[in-house]
Design a protein that fits this description.
Blueprint: H1 40-47, E1 59-65, E2 68-75, E3 77-79, E4 84-85, E5 92-93, H2 99-111, H3 137-141, H4 150-156, H5 166-175, H6 192-206, H7 210-222, E6 228-229, E7 244-247, E8 250-253, E9 268-270, H8 272-280, H9 290-296, E10 316-320, E11 323-332, E12 335-342, E13 347-353, H10 360-371, H11 395-399, E14 403-407, E15 412-419, E16 422-426, E17 434-439, E18 444-446, E19 453-457, E20 466-470, E21 477-482, H12 489-493, E22 497-501, E23 506-513, E24 516-520, E25 527-533, E26 536-539, E27 543-549, E28 555-561, E29 568-572
Antiparallel strand pairs: 1-2, 1-13, 3-4, 5-9, 6-9, 7-8, 10-11, 11-12, 12-13, 14-15, 14-21, 15-16, 16-17, 17-18, 18-19, 19-20, 20-21, 22-23, 22-29, 23-24, 24-25, 25-26, 26-27, 27-28, 28-29
Helix pairs in contact: 1-10, 2-6, 2-7, 4-5, 5-6
């Protein structure tokens, strides 16, 4: 459920401007307004009324209690062109929900003694470089690998014109990297490419593709007969739900709704009922054993963290209204899904949607609100995410917080701005996707519905105004406000030239124009660079470009820095 992949995961999620943190919109279950006479299923149907139409895509719902399906139904259309409705048998691409099945495949191989979770990845992916710190299979499973995001790398390289399988292309792209985002085990950072590597390990160790291995060892034993890893994009899938995108009030076919054969991080095609069979395996184990499934559900503890992360092996561990939850979401253009289990209540919900703006997480919570109403111990919002009473600030007080802020540890930037009298934060230099910051004092703000607190620390002698963000990790994330940077045309020309990256096997041309610097990428649209601070610019895709100089002040190269790929080095081509 956490974002970025080559296919542009678009599950209902928003990223805080400093630290990648997922905030899913919650369903306002108060709008259901059930009367005492309404049945449980009638309340559920009312919750899904928005999607229960013949002119809209929608979703498939499955609910189980004690391993028994208690309700399943389709809402909306599987295919708008042919007028086919969604049914419980409709097959959906569930995107990152795939990860837990990749993790189980690895754990089954470990159970058989064919590998160890603490083996170095290089033992099986021999083309990977030898990093200074050990990179293990366990690091891949719990997203503490430090690997650069493979899909970011593919987007920065020249478009592929070969016929290399996309999974193999990802392995090759990662094998060319000589740097990591951080030392393995030191941080938690969601990483799609790591799970593509896990799929490659399954193939190299077992001699079977991930699709064949999972089919023989997971899907068939559990009776998941409508489930497979879709490694062949030309394959016809009966009862497949087409993916759609809502734009300007109208539905359109999602251009990149097919995963393109990528498996491991994504690529699972399944139904809601099949996912409920899988969820029951955690209570009544048939695939694996109790120790194995317990390990899957144990959160990682990155080095130096005083607490656990919320992620095990392909599973998110959390709570809702005081009850333990174990689940995962997924989203790509055209699809959004969430499956969750309340282990102590032996209750599970799966919502699979074929439109990318569907709030699958909120809908699963809405279903739980109805079925588990008698056992919820807390109010609707968890006590950990209750928003304190807000205060009213003047326009001048809000404006004083606005500006561009830089995280020097990652060389990423975000913008604070005022819109419609409210302070908002975006994860880049623009004012597009953003979250509202609600004031609880003059300098403290919260992101409603989350545990995130943003504190503005006024400027002091020798120090710019700072933002300290808590609630997203073991220690505050500090970002500093940067002054406006306006280089002259002469200064801009000093950056012009060709720059090459062996790690991406690509050469960029930087041109100085009246409007500023422009990156010309082979086979891709030009990227306009906006100056953000001395020797640093920001642009779409490359994010923050930070130029390097020699002792004489001559520009020798630059690094491209994004949340998924830090410190990508480009060297200037000498003429």
């Amino acid at each position: 459920m956490i974002t970025s992949c080559f296919f542009g995961i678009t599950a209902i999620a928003i990223v805080s401007f400093i630290t990648p943190t997922v905030f899913a919109k919650e369903t306002d279950t108060a709008k259901v307004n059930p009367s005492p006479a309404e049945s449980v299923t009638a309340r559920v149907d009312k919750l899904f009324a928005e999607w229960n139409r013949s002119d809209s895509p929608g979703c498939s719902l499955g609910v189980s209690q004690n391993g028994v399906v208690v309700y399943e139904r389709g809402y909306g259309m599987a295919n708008l062109e042919s007028g086919v409705a969604i049914t419980p048998a409709s097959v959906f691409h569930v995107c990152s929900i795939s990860k837990q099945f990749t993790a189980m495949s690895i754990l089954l191989l470990a159970q058989r003694g064919q590998l160890s979770l603490d083996d170095e990845v290089r033992k099986y992916i021999t083309e990977l470089p030898n990093y200074e710190s050990r990179l293990t299979i366990r690091h891949l499973l719990n997203h503490t690998s430090g690997l650069r995001d493979a899909f970011t790398l593919l987007g920065l390289a020249a478009p592929r014109e070969d016929d290399v399988n996309v999974n193999d292309a990802i392995v090759k792209a990662l094998a060319r990297q000589r740097g990591l985002n951080f030392r393995p085990g030191a941080e938690f950072q969601y990483n799609n490419g790591g799970y593509t590597l896990l799929a490659a390990i399954v193939k190299r160790v077992s001699g079977q593709s991930l699709r064949a291995f999972a089919d023989a060892n997971i899907f068939k034993p559990l009776g998941m007969m409508r489930t497979h890893f879709h490694d062949d994009p030309t394959m016809i899938v009966p009862n497949r739900a087409s993916g759609y995108h809502l734009d300007a009030g109208a539905f359109h076919v999602a251009i990149r709704a097919d995963p393109g054969g990528v498996v491991g991080n994504a690529g699972l095609f399944t139904t809601a009922r099949d996912l409920l069979l899988w969820e029951q395996n955690f209570a009544d184990v048939r695939v694996g054993d109790k120790a194995l499934v317990a390990e899957m559900q144990t959160p990682a503890i990155p080095t130096g963290w005083s607490d656990k992360s919320s992620y095990g092996f392909g599973l998110e561990i959390g709570e809702y209204r005081g009850l333990r939850t174990i689940g995962h979401g997924g989203g790509d253009p055209g699809y959004g899904a969430y499956v969750v289990r309340y282990p102590d209540q032996r209750f599970a919900v799966a919502v699979l949607g074929n439109v990318d703006n569907i709030n699958a997480l909120g809908l699963t919570r809405g279903v739980a609100d109805i079925y588990l109403a008698d056992v919820f111990a807390a109010p609707l919002a968890s006590s950990a995410t209750v928003t304190p009473p807000k205060v009213s600030l003047s326009a001048e007080q809000l404006a004083s917080k606005a500006g561009l802020y830089r995280n020097p540890s990652t060389e990423t930037v975000g913008r604070i701005f005022v819109r419609d009298g409210k302070l908002r934060a975006s994860s880049d230099t623009g004012e597009g996707d953003s979250v509202e910051l609600t004031p609880v004092s003059e300098d403290r703000f919260v992101i409603p519905g989350t545990a995130v607190v943003v504190e503005f620390v006024p400027a002091a002698s020798g120090r710019a105004q700072e933002i300290h963000e808590t609630g997203t990790g073991p220690k505050p994330v500090v970002s500093q406000k940067v002054d406006a940077f306006a280089p002259s045309s002469t200064e801009l020309r000093a950056f012009a030239g060709e720059y090459t990256s062996p790690e991406l096997e690509v050469t960029y041309t930087l041109a100085a124009r009246d409007s500023g610097l422009v990156i010309q990428m082979p086979g891709r649209p030009d990227v306009v660079l906006q100056p953000i601070f001395p020797d640093a610019f920001a642009g779409a895709g490359v994010n923050v470009v930070k130029f390097l100089r020699d002792a004489g002040g001559v520009v020798t190269g630059f690094t491209a820095n994004s949340r998924g790929a830090r410190g990508l080095r480009f060297d200037r081509v000498k003429r």
